[in-house]
């Protein structure tokens, strides 16, 4: 009996145990593949977006480079590193060079906690299609996707120009606002799955995906992930009609390409995260986790199909919706998404507690109705009365939101320029003495 038990024990290893048993060369292969997923999908997404938006706008899109224009992104990727690198005189060079790196690196790391498939065999070794399985994998992905805003803020500040600075400030306010809504939308998923490990969340959806069990959380997350990635119609940090190019106005060559790469990799991250949290991850719909369709390498196809469906949603939004005004965008985040999220979490918690206590009885239903009515009455009393504006009143946008100050002042000189000006003044003081000495020598020669 003991021998049979020991023989069967390895078949019931968890995802974390299987990953812990991976040899170093298998971990290295997974790490290299994870790092390559972002750049490869970026090249594909750029040409796909240009072709799809062109089709929506009744134009051909790129059609010159390669068959039907599908090698255009590859040509751009080869061209950008060889373009001229222009650095403003007012730029803080160290931070200016560091900002694109801060944007890209966390984006590439976040995919390591995403489960792409179940247990498989690679060169005879049992493993899972995932680089690491952490008990707090959800928090790791959230942290990596939000660190990139530091690069955007530093890029705007280090450029020494007003438009990039305004774009950086917008991005900071935007990411903070929508990061809160995104984090709150995940709370209900954690309550239902009972875990913050991404693999456990996928397994918990074997009998029902969370996008229809928790529809409010899914809708809020979908809106927040568009705001988090600075994509249209929420692309306020790089609004070309207001800020020229926003935070990357003063960037060119390979550094501009790194910002471009970070934007599209972030799209892949938040879309993969949405697939994991709400769309069943790598699981095929309407069948159990033990079904043949959810075994081996097939689930990798299902994960890819769901991922590309969400990525097409980004492209669709860009081709159809106009850009929001900044105060409207911030109002949506703070006054709609965050309060709605809090009420939804309260409702989900109450429903879970009632179900665990034995279901809904008549007294519980009456109490719930009474509490809901009292809440609506109190909320209506707290809301301010709507006052009709005067005919001559000119509405002012903003107010109460983290908008850039109107009296924002940009330093006239950088420390390097001040040092150069001081050196010129010293040189100018020495110059008259040298000129007078030359004149005296000339006069003596004439005499």
TrEMBL record:
Keyword Cytoplasm: no
Family affiliation: Belongs to the complex I subunit 1 family.
Ranges that cross the membrane: 24-48, 95-116, 136-157, 178-197, 209-227, 264-284, 296-316, 336-354, 360-383
Phylogenetic lineage: Bacteria, Bacillati, Actinomycetota, Actinomycetes, Pseudonocardiales
Protein name, per record: NADH-quinone oxidoreductase subunit H
UniProt keyword Transmembrane helix present: yes
Major place of residence: membrane
Domain of life: Bacteria
Key words, A-Z: Cell membrane, Membrane, NAD, Quinone, Translocase, Transmembrane, Transmembrane helix, Ubiquinone
Record's catalysed reaction(s): a quinone + NADH + 5 H(+)(in) = a quinol + NAD(+) + 4 H(+)(out)
Quaternary structure (record): NDH-1 is composed of 14 different subunits. Subunits NuoA, H, J, K, L, M, N constitute the membrane sector of the complex.
A single GO molecular function term of this UniProt record: oxidoreductase activity, acting on NAD(P)H, quinone or similar compound as acceptor
Enzyme's top EC category: translocase
GO cellular component: plasma membrane
Enzyme Commission identifier(s): 7.1.1.-
HAMAP family associated with the record: NDH1_NuoH
GO terms, biological process: aerobic respiration
PROSITE patterns, per the entry: COMPLEX1_ND1_2
Localisation per UniProt entry: Cell membrane; Membrane
Protein topology in the membrane: Multi-pass membrane protein
Pfam families: NADHdh
The protein's role, per its UniProt record: NDH-1 shuttles electrons from NADH, via FMN and iron-sulfur (Fe-S) centers, to quinones in the respiratory chain. The immediate electron acceptor for the enzyme in this species is believed to be ubiquinone. Couples the redox reaction to proton translocation (for every two electrons transferred, four hydrogen ions are translocated across the cytoplasmic membrane), and thus conserves the redox energy in a proton gradient. This subunit may bind ubiquinone.
InterPro entries to which the protein is assigned, alphabetical: NADH_UbQ_OxRdtase_su1/FPO, NADH_UbQ_OxRdtase_su1_CS
């Amino acid at each position: 009996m003991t021998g049979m038990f020991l023989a069967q024990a390895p078949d019931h290893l968890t995802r974390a145990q299987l990953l812990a048993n991976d040899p170093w060369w298998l971990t290295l292969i997974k790490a290299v593949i994870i790092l390559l997923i972002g750049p490869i999908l970026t090249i594909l997404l750029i040409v796909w977006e240009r072709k799809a938006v062109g089709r929506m706008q009744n134009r051909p899109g790129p059609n010159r480079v390669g068959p039907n224009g599908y090698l255009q992104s590859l040509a751009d990727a080869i061209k950008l590193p060889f373009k001229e690198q222009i650095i403003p005189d007012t730029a803080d060079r160290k931070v200016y060079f560091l900002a694109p790196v801060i944007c890209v690196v966390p984006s590439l790391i976040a995919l390591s906690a995403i489960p792409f498939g179940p247990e498989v065999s690679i060169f005879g070794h049992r493993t899972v299609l995932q680089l690491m399985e952490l008990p707090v994998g959800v928090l790791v992905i959230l942290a990596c996707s939000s660190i990139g805003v530091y690069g955007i803020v530093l890029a705007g500040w280090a450029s020494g120009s007003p438009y990039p600075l305004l774009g950086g400030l917008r991005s900071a306010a935007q990411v903070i606002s929508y990061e809160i809504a995104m984090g709150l939308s995940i709370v209900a998923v954690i309550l239902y799955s009972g875990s913050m490990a991404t693999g456990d969340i996928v397994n918990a959806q074997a009998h029902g995906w969370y996008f229809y069990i928790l529809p409010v959380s899914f809708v809020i997350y979908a809106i927040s992930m568009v705001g988090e990635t600075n994509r249209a119609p929420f692309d306020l940090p790089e609004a070309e009609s207001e800020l020229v190019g926003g935070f990357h106005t003063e960037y060119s060559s390979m550094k501009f390409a790194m910002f471009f790469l970070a934007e599209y990799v972030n799209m892949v991250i938040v879309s993969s995260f949405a697939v994991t949290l709400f769309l069943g991850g790598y699981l095929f719909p309407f069948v159990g986790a033990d079904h043949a369709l959810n075994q081996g390498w097939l689930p990798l196809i299902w994960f890819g199909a769901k991922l590309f469906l969400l990525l097409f949603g980004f492209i669709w939004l860009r081709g159809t919706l106009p850009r929001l005004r900044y105060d409207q965008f911030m109002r949506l985040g703070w006054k709609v998404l965050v309060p709605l999220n809090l009420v939804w979490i309260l409702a989900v918690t109450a429903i879970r507690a009632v179900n665990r206590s034995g279901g809904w009885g008549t007294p519980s239903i009456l109490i719930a109705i009474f509490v809901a009515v009292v809440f609506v009455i109190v909320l209506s009393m707290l809301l301010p009365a709507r006052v009709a504006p005067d005919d001559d009143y000119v509405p002012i946008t903003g107010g109460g939101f983290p908008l850039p100050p109107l009296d924002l002042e940009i330093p006239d000189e950088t420390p390097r320029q001040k040092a150069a000006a001081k050196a010129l003044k010293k040189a100018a003081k020495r110059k008259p003495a040298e000129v007078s000495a030359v004149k005296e020598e000339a006069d003596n020669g004439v005499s």
